[in-house]
Every structure is written in structure tokens, then in C-alpha cells.
Design a protein that fits this description.
- The chain is an alpha+beta fold.
- About 50% of the residues lie in helices and about 15% in strands.
- It contains three helices and five strands.
- The chain has a five-stranded antiparallel beta sheet, with helices on one face.
- It is globular and about 35 Å long.
- The protein starts with a helix and ends with a strand.
- The relative contact order is 0.17.
């Protein structure tokens, strides 16, 4: 796909997911906020800093869902900011919470929800804006 079209598609997807998140916020804000305050997650995956400078990414990989649908899922976030341990943990917990709430959704929907969770966590918890084009989420050969 043409890079300009790919960027447009990702931005449109981000806008759609943002609108959906805003629409659902009234029903989900309190439980989601309570869940994200958790200090740990029992999922066997981890987020870590990879590289540095302009090539720095945050990589989260492993078993994110409880039913193995997304076993081996990777979330790669291209960002110049190196996250500290608390931020990495907050990102892990946010991804686990979203994954646990979407276990019956189609895989592509689950992956899009993980992408949205990563972007939202960066913005609301870390004050860092990350564009969807800088977030890659894959489960096996399926990527968004």
C-alpha cells in the first residue's frame, strides 16, 4: 500500500477508535480507571525499551489475552521517549485490561483496541502524543 494511503487509513482508524472510546467513556470510565490503577498484571508478557534516539521503540510482547487468542502478540511503539519502569508497567496493565475486556471480539478488533489503548495510555498517563502510524500491533501474521 502507498505510504500516504497507509497513513490516511491509520489516521482514519484512530479517529474512529477515538470517537468510539469517547462514546463508551460514560459507561466505562470508572471501571477502567480503577483497573488501570493496578500495579501489576498476571499476563506472561512484558513491555521494554528497545534501542535509543530516533530508532527507539517500546516493545510489548507475549501472551496478552487470557484465552490465548493473541498469544505472541507484539505491540511496537516508535517514540523518542524512554519509558521508566512505572510507565512500562502502566502500559502493560492498560493492554492487559483492554485484552481481557475484548476476548470474544474478532482478532482484528482486539488488535485495534490494543493500538488505541497504547495511544491513549501514552497521552493520558505520560502526556506523550503518539500517532497511530507509530504504533504497530501484530498477532502472528495479522497486523494493524
Amino acid at each position: 500500500m502507498d505510504p500516504a494511503k497507509e497513513t490516511t487509513v491509520k489516521l482514519a482508524r484512530f479517529a474512529t477508535m477515538t470517537a468510539l472510546a469517547a462514546a463508551l467513556a460514560g459507561a466505562a470510565v470508572a471501571p477502567a480507571a480503577a483497573q488501570q490503577n493496578s500495579a501489576t498484571t498476571t499476563h506472561p508478557y512484558a513491555c521494554s525499551n528497545q534501542g535509543g534516539g530516533p530508532s527507539h521503540t517500546v516493545n510489548c510482547s507475549g501472551l496478552i489475552t487470557v484465552n490465548n487468542v493473541l498469544n505472541g502478540t507484539t505491540v511496537n511503539i516508535g517514540d523518542l521517549n524512554v519509558l521508566n519502569g512505572t510507565q512500562l508497567n502502566d502500559l502493560q496493565v492498560a493492554l492487559a485490561n483492554v485484552a481481557d475486556n475484548n476476548v470474544n471480539a474478532p482478532v482484528t478488533v482486539q488488535l485495534l483496541n490494543l493500538e488505541t489503548a497504547a495511544i491513549t495510555t501514552y497521552l493520558t498517563k505520560f502526556g506523550i502524543t503518539v500517532l497511530p502510524v507509530n504504533v504497530g500491533v501484530c498477532a502472528g501474521s495479522i497486523c494493524v
